[in-house]
Amino acid sequence: EGDAILPASFTCHQLLTLSEIMLRFMRSQIIMARIIVISALLAVSDAFQAVGSLPGARVSARSAVSMQVTAEPLVAQPAALAKAADEARGLAIDSISKAESGHMGLPLGCAEIGAVLFGQEMSYNPVDPEWVNRDRFVLSAGHGSMFLYSWLHMAGYDLPMKEVENFRAKDSKTPGHPEFGWTPGVEATTGPLGQGVANGVGLAAAAKLAGATLNTAEHSIIDHHVVVLCGDGCLQEGIANEAVAFAGHEQLDNLILMYDSNGVTLDKMAEHTQSEDVGMRFEAQGWEVLEIDGHDMDAITKAYQHAKNSDNGKPTLIICKTIIGKGIDEIAGTCAAHGEAGVKYKDSGRESLGLPADKNWYVSPETYDFFTEHKKELIAKYEAWGETFKAWEAANPDKAKMLADAKAGVVPDLDSMMPEFKVGAQIATRNAGADVLQPIAQSMPFYVSGSADLHGSNKNYMKGVGDFSKNNYAGRNFYYGIREHAMGAIMNGMAYYGLFRVSGSTFLVFSDYMRAAVRVAALSHLPINYIWTHDSIGVGEDGPTHQPVETVSSMRLIPNLDVMRPGDADETAAAYVHALNRKEGPTALILSRQNLPVLGEASAEDKKAGTKMGGYVLVKETEELSSIILAVGSELSMAVEAAKEIGGGCRVVSMPCVEAFERQSAEYKESVLPKAMKSKTTAVEAGVTALWYKFADKVMGVDSFGLSAPGDQVYEAKGITVPKLVELVKA
């Protein structure tokens, strides 16, 4: 106590005794503190019980006060929905059994959730599955796809029973994981866990932006919700946490995340790999959290309606405590229920569910009748919305045209809007991109941009369109924070929405954080634009951690992703125009940090036209063709200088986009790169060399990591120089 100094004669034994006394004192204080906290919690609990309780629901303190308590059941036809739930279980059992593969646990464990959502609560129209104001449902746990297919079939979407029976079969509309654009009613391609959570965040953000852009004081045409069903696996993935933080910060209160909390993962029970309180984590990130019995349809309904009608400015997490594989007693509640282990218990499971033994894929006439009547109710709501839409359309012709153009994917004549660049000017392609982006932003009101905390470096900020935030949902510049993986999947979600042309940016080397989402965008044919700057070893002083020597080539390996690495400002303008006119899939724009000269060896028009072809002759030979230099991006000007030293027989080919070049006719490709000249063709790019040997027998590149030094010195150290290139061409 106090500042007493221990005498030198103090022994170790005495020190231990003193430590023990202090420890016991501290423990006694902790125990007293715990008693006080527990007493307070008990008092709070008593207060909540005095207010009332939710049948079948356990909710957090914040939620218990705000939720309206009623003794009346909220499920209009509980018997019909319970019957539908068991028949949905049966469809999953039969389809997975026939395929001898699939994931049975979620479809059986979440059947009551599906019944409430598709049979009562969600607003949708199976006849018009692309209705702009429908509630969006995303199955983030995409492995449980038979859950979604069963409910889409029963709800009346164009998914006949034959397709349900052909689950996982070649060319069926019921693939192993849901695929956007392939199956009616599927809102997102899911399967890589966690991405669906971020897709839902993107859809919710898109809805907020659409509502802020289109709604008026007199007419509200966008007021729907986004519902995501996820599991433990989704929430363990880091991408989900990134997206959840973004959604909470931006107060996306139109988002409802239903968490299938069954305590099971594939290898072991979830307790072996997680021990955090998920609800507290979400609350700390600005979400409202409800906890319910996921098999109690009244509790599901009550929680869902509360989330939908709440005005607290928070997205909602509904923790649904479920039994995985419910309905097959032999596996229910175990790790075995996750996959197809229940197939061998198919007969006993169907019997316990009350399904006829002689009829597989059984949906009763009563269930079909129920959904037929429900469909009429949904269409009536749809038609009432249609009347509001007609009034809005008549009162707001400019907004109506804007919406029609966005839905149709109309792109204006961007070529006529592009800035002109002076030949010889030294301009980094990221800076050229900044100039190109401004007329795009002004002429395309549904074009959005964003960055993972790098607007100042990526140069992709759009002037005069505002910043998207909880204070301004009409803004079109998105600030994702340092969350590249979530940014990629949120962008996918916004693209799934069907109105927006979406772009986002970071350093090229950090595109690897986004790669899983980029792959899904390419698979889903989403016309997203990636703006990835700091393209090569030219980054310089930041060193090898930031010098993406392998990244461009690795992105070229992703099918249906156009990778465009322009060599000057004119090619950059053409790359942006190409990206926005491409509707078949995403496009990556790879831009430089360092200045590059605007080349005058061809006209701006010829360069732009050639860029859209993917590759073209920039410098034509003036003598008999003796050699070709194939160059791309920052190394293009180097190739031009080398050709001057080599002489008139040297041709320079610019290939900003290998993928676009490969789509051209055989005749065009031969005119640019004659096959007979392959042995005399030298390719140069400041990255790994392997892919270029398809076009050239000699390649100058970088097959090792870079180093920290000024950019020109790094190029020198790696042997990427004009003299070295001349030497290689002549070798």
UniProtKB/TrEMBL annotation:
Q: Which cofactor does it need?
A: Ca(2+); Co(2+); Mn(2+); thiamine diphosphate
Binding-site residues for Mg(2+), renumbered to this chain: 232, 262, 264
Report the catalytic activity. Answer: D-sedoheptulose 7-phosphate + D-glyceraldehyde 3-phosphate = aldehydo-D-ribose 5-phosphate + D-xylulose 5-phosphate
Which Pfam families does its entry note?
Answer: Transket_pyr (PF02779), Transketolase_C_1 (PF22613), Transketolase_N (PF00456)
The residues that hold thiamine diphosphate are 143, 191-193, 233, 262, 338, 510
**Protein keywords:** Calcium, Magnesium, Metal-binding, Thiamine pyrophosphate, Transferase
Q: What class of enzyme is it?
A: transferase
Cite the binding residues for substrate.
Answer: 103, 338, 430, 457, 534, 542, 546, 593
The source's domain of life comes to: Eukaryota
Q: Which residues form the Transketolase-like pyrimidine-binding domain?
A: 427-598
- What does the record say about how the cofactor binds? Binds 1 thiamine pyrophosphate per subunit. During the reaction, the substrate forms a covalent intermediate with the cofactor. Binds 1 Mg(2+) ion per subunit. Can also utilize other divalent metal cations, such as Ca(2+), Mn(2+) and Co(2+).
The record's InterPro entries line, in alphabetical order, gives: THDP-binding, Transketo_C/PFOR_II, Transketolase-like_C_2, Transketolase-like_Pyr-bd, Transketolase_bac-like, Transketolase_BS, Transketolase_CS, Transketolase_fam
Q: How does it assemble?
A: Homodimer.
Question: Which family, according to the similarity comment?
Answer: Belongs to the transketolase family.
What's this protein's function?
Catalyzes the transfer of a two-carbon ketol group from a ketose donor to an aldose acceptor, via a covalent intermediate with the cofactor thiamine pyrophosphate.
**Which protein is depicted?**
Transketolase
Q: Which organism is it from?
A: Chrysotila carterae (Marine alga)
